[in-house]
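Good morning,

Attaching, inline, the backbone tokens for the sequence recovery test we're adding to the shared suite. The designed sequence is right after.
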């Protein structure tokens, strides 16, 4: 993988032996074990869970959900294609191109699987992420904001639903011959 701002960045699918260090460096809330959940979905063939490594330490992750958004309303308003989800770079390593490299690798994987688009939802107040997506060629869909939610589990095992308001974006992938 390419050189990002002086370091040798490796981007690859998550492996079982990565899970402990991923959870240590980017802890999930409560007992959610998000890295394990995404890895299990990868084993089931539903996602590709990309992880970014610099000098052997994890610096970011991105989950490519191959079937597109779970929400049928979102799916109906977007071109068919995998969803970029769980996209995160650790705070100390942001603004060095690692997020862009993760997105590029996700798009390459999507293209290799024959998909013509990738899609994503971004919280309406996350202006930094929205600007980055626009820079990388993503466009807002024409349907405005949409309510969504995700669940997390606290230390006592109780599930919580976290609401969010997102705008969906998409990018048509150029198929290389
Ligand atoms: C969104 C996020 C994943 C982006 O990761 P990142 O590694 O900072 O992304 P990049 O470095 O590729 O791009 C960020 C900015 O740095 C700039 N940049 C890229 N390489 C650079 C470099 N070598 N030197 C200086 N700036 C650089 C980019 O052009 C971009 O600028 P922009 O914000 O004006 O578009 C990261 O900010 C993050 O984890 N945020 C919290 C979680 C989040 O919001 N996730 C998205 C949910 S939808």
């Amino acid at each position: 993988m390419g050189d990002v701002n002086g370091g040798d960045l490796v981007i690859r699918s998550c492996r079982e032996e990565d899970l402990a260090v991923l959870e240590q460096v980017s802890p999930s809330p409560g007992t959610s074990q998000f890295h394990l959940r995404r890895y299990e979905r990868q084993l089931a063939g539903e996602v590709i869970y990309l992880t970014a490594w610099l000098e052997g330490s994890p610096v970011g992750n991105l989950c490519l959900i191959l079937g597109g958004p779970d929400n049928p309303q979102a799916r109906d308003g977007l071109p068919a294609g995998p969803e970029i989800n769980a996209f995160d770079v650790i705070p100390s390593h942001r603004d060095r191109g690692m997020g862009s490299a993760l997105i590029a690798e996700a798009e390459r994987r999507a293209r290799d699987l024959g998909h013509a688009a990738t899609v994503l939802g971004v919280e309406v107040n996350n202006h930094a992420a929205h600007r980055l997506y626009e820079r990388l060629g993503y466009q807002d869909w024409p349907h405005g904001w949409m309510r969504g939610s995700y669940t997390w589990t606290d230390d006592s095992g109780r599930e919580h639903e976290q609401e969010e308001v997102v705008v969906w974006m998409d990018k048509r992938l150029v198929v290389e011959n």
